[in-house]
Amino acid sequence: MLDGTEDEEKFLAAGIAGLQQNSFYMHRALDSNNLRDALKYSAQMLSELRTSKLSPHKYYELYMRAFDQLRKLEMFFEEETRRGCSIIDLYELVQHAGNILPRLYLLCTVGSVYIKSKEAPAKDVLKDLVEMCRGIQHPVRGLFLRSYLSQVSRDKLPDIGSEYEGDADTVSDAVEFVLQNFTEMNKLWVRMQHQGPAREKEKREKERSELRDLVGKNLHVLSQIEGVDLDMYKDIVLPRVLEQVVNCKDELAQFYLMDCIIQVFPDEYHLQTLDVLLGACPQLQPSVDIKTVLSQLMERLSHYAASSAEVLPEFLQVEAFAKLSNAIGRVIEAQPDMPTLGVVTLYSSLLTFTLHVHPDRLDYADQVLGACVRKLSGKGKIEDSKATKQVVALLSAPLEKYNDIMTALKLSNYPRVLEYLDVPTIRVMATVIIQSIMKNGTRISTSDKVEALFELIKGLIKDSDGTSNDKLDEDDFKEEQNSVARLIQMFYNDDPEEMLKIIETVRKHILAGGPKRLPFTVPPLVFCSLKLVRQLQGQEENPFGDDASTTPKKIFQLLNQIIETLSGIPVPELALQLYLQCAEAANDCELEPVAYEFFTQAYILYEEEISDSRAQITCIHLIIGTLQRMHVFGVENRDTLTHKATGYSAKLLKKPDQCRAVYACSHLFWVEDHDNMKDGERVLLCLKRALRIANAAQQMANAARGSTGSVMLFIEILNKYLYFFEKGNPQITVASIQSLIELIMNEMQSDSTTSDPAAEAFLASTMRYVQFQKQKGGAVGEKYEPIKYEPIKA
How does this chain sit within the bilayer (predicted)? Predict the structure, then answer.
């Protein structure tokens, strides 16, 4: 291969050298106005283009050098005609060149001057030139010769408004000239494919690709002719071009020329000639990438429709959607071996076109999806990754256009297309749907819509066909389930009956999702239900005893069942938190038995399921905090629950944790704004018990490590004393506070106590608060005045 490249470089160098040498003599003849020598050396110069030893790329380099010299020769011919030389004689004189290729280049050059002189109609000269060029049938040489003819004639066509416009129907002559040149060039271009050994097929295809613009420029010239109106395009130009495209039966030529037609001619022409253009598509070779051709056509028409609302009636008038849809069907039928990627790409482009041109016609969009389903039927799951991406694009298009999942839910064929995706892609598509809902803040307001939506996103809410999530990345799984949780929060209806139906629909689907998903999906469902409870809060029972009515009690029964499903996972901490949330909601609804039942369930979980010490600490503080806010319980029930809570507190593993939980329990016996829930003695008992535990912790530390450790617990208890003292608990006296302060001071000054800067800062801050209260004066100042504090001297 390297030797061939080196030889080609040598042939090119020799050609350029010969061309430069003869152009030198040609210029010398031009300078001396020696016409005969000028023609002689120009013919010899152009003979270098007769070579067959160069690739199209190298031949182009040689051609461009000759082209530059021909422009100078043309200027010389123009000067000769101004000096009195007959252009007709010159036109005949150049035809005496010995070789046909130089003769035709010279003839085209003189022909350009001949047309400019207007001594003969432009159409006659052009017709003569295009016919004469038939003399070169070598593909590469012929293509470059006709390209030169196209180049020198493009500004001399007898077009409307052109200085070369004749009296008769000259636009037809201009069109005929370009079409004829195009036809001959295409034949030469196609012929290249069939010359040479079969093993060099790929090389020839590459060379042909390099030359395609020479052929395509003719179509560009056609599109620039002012006289080519819609009627002429419809009756003459398009049929002739398509005839050549179809008849050439060459894959590369058909694809490129169809693309050229779509790109160079105006959009309104395409719209008015859809029948003709689309009719050619099934006639193309099966190997032609027709999906790209039609996709580009639909893309152009979509942009045309988006450019102005005034053109939309034209689309309706020509029934563009029906024609495109039928054409796609015919193309797929004509190519039974068309890969899935091609089928999906075509329908994806058609759907995009439909959404741009007919956004109000959901039935059209559904027809497209239905047609796609029919073509995919029997093929099973799509395995091609590119085809899969196209399906995702197809399904994403309605979401992006309408920004409303409700619209997509109206498309009956939408979920049927989803079925052809593999499991990972179904999950991706479900995530896209949820993101669309969240981005647009769409509220899903009926159980039917929730049912339809869950059918679309079932890839996230349950395992498909026995597959599991074991292979799925844990972080990806969590992200997916969190997105489902966010989605559940978007379900809402003001009508309690309908909202309850929505909750029951969600419950049915998430319970089918397996235990691994429940910790993510149960909490949002519980909070949706609690939101409905708040909505119904204070509502009286139906006086007629209608069991179908939605009441808080019925919802709480449902909530109990929902939370129970977490017991088999197990996630006891989560279940306990949800029970406490429900208990608080039942408290606000004045439903004491319901609230007590939820607390009972929470206590059972704490006793039987939660053994981790850290989890126990968190849960006991949650229990205390929730119980403190409960006001619905009678004395007996409250005593039972508070007794249990204080008992749990005292049984924690570590003494400091015991201490903190016990002094937190003191708040259970003193609740502001509820006089019947203020028991100063039991508050003091809790605080004294906390002090005993703190003291025991100090002794244990001393026994184990030889130092009593920090006094932080005592300072924390002091803050509780001050809190209840300020709130007016008569059992918390100045004497008890003063005694505790002195205890803390003694401990801090003890040699066995470990220095703790944090504790010292906390105590200083606490005492600054006492000082601040003293400075307030009045009753508050008098109350705090007896409390004395002597800072430790360094």
Answer: Peripheral membrane protein
